[in-house]
Amino acid sequence: MKHIFIVNPAAGKGKHIPSLLASITYACEDLKVEYDVYHTHAVGDATEHVSDVCKQNPDEKFRFYACGGDGTLSEVLNGAVGHDNAEIAVIPMGTGNDFVKTFRHPEYFSEIQRQVRGVAQKFDLLKYNDRYSLNIVNAGFDCDVVCKVAQIKRNAFVPSKLAYIMGIFSVFIKPLGKRFKVTVDDSEYFENDFMLCAMANALYYGGGFKAAPLAKLNDGYMDLCLVDIVSRWDFIRIIPKYKAGKHVDENGNSPYPFVHYRKCKKVVIESENTIGICGDGEVTQINKVVVEVVPSAIAFSIPKDSDCISAETDNSENGKDIASVS
């Protein structure tokens, strides 16, 4: 198998790239594996490159490492999906690095030797329109924050964490809630002004918010969390619980009447007005989106001695930042 490292030179403002490249060279030569490094040039480049490599070499096996943030992982994923000769992995170098928090020892994802010696497992994906997500697809308040943060970062030299705080404050002071209809598994209907809607394959998003504490990557279901519009005071009150994954119990029941949690296989969101849908940091403006689970759709390599955390495990320590590469 050939190991291909897809490097986003803009990830983490590029400060970890030199140490990453040195670690890749050392690990791959020490383990005597065939490898290559590809630097992305523009948005969408990673998806195109991964897909082209798989198509042009159908008899060769590849493992593609997304070296960047959750957006880079999304691009690599969408290039690899549908190709039987592709595995994917992630070396977290972004701001949030939310997906790796779903695993024990998320720091192992920054250790190249553990990565190369890792073993792939088949995970589910969320298909939304023509895109795929490994982590979480969401709409509402948190999607608006993503858009605002991107705008802040484009218009000013603001550190990523400060931009996120500024984005939350900017959205919070505006009118809250968006009205849309949610259909679950073609049988259950919700229509309301919603604060947020998260459809999860994994546990974390938004820089460490445990939106879907019961989610599993290979159970054939997504976890839907709907929050009705609430007062600003109630929103502030529930945020710490939502971040810690304590807004529902082990059975998916919530002490808050405005929180709805379901395991399901299909969700349809419809709105008279255009709303933003965010999949792993990529925002699309739509009136309707269909989100469906695709079971066992991607081979994902987990570093040696790491594995998925269970829904019952209290893994709050995984909310810490992953910064170094070794």
Give a topology summary:
Elements: E1 2-7, H1 17-31, E2 35-39, H2 45-56, E3 62-68, H3 70-80, E4 86-92, H4 112-116, E5 119-128, E6 131-133, E7 136-140, H5 141-155, H6 160-172, E8 178-184, E9 188-200, E10 222-228, H7 232-244, E11 259-264, E12 266-279, E13 282-302
Parallel strand pairs: 1-2, 1-3, 3-4
Antiparallel strand pairs: 5-6, 5-13, 7-9, 7-12, 8-9, 8-12, 9-10, 10-11, 12-13
Question: Any overview of this molecule?
Answer:
- By secondary structure, the chain is α+β, with helices and mostly antiparallel strands.
- The chain has two domains: 2-118 and 303-319, Probable inorganic polyphosphate/atp-NAD kinase, domain 1 (Rossmann fold, 3-Layer(aba) Sandwich); 133-295, Tumour Suppressor Smad4 (Sandwich), CATH 2.60.200.40.
- The protein contains seven helices and 13 strands.
- The chain has helices at residues 17-31, 45-56, 70-80, 112-116, 141-155, 160-172, 232-244, and strands spanning 2-7, 35-39, 62-68, 86-92, 119-128, 131-133, 136-140, 178-184, 188-200, 222-228, 259-264, 266-279, 282-302.
Quick structural summary:
This protein is α+β, with helices and mostly antiparallel strands. The chain contains seven helices and 13 strands.
Pick out its properties.
326 residues; Rossmann fold; Tumour Suppressor Smad4; nine-stranded antiparallel β-sheet; 7 helices; 26% helix; disordered C terminus
**Briefly, what CATH class of the largest domain?**
Mainly Beta
Number of helices: 7
The figure for the number of domains is 2
Count of strand segments: 13
Largest sheet: 9 strands, antiparallel
Give, in order, the helices and strands. EHEHEHEHEEEHHEEEHEEE
Structural class category: alpha+beta
Radius of gyration: 19 Å
Q: Could you say which overall geometry the principal axes of the C-alpha atoms support?
A: globular
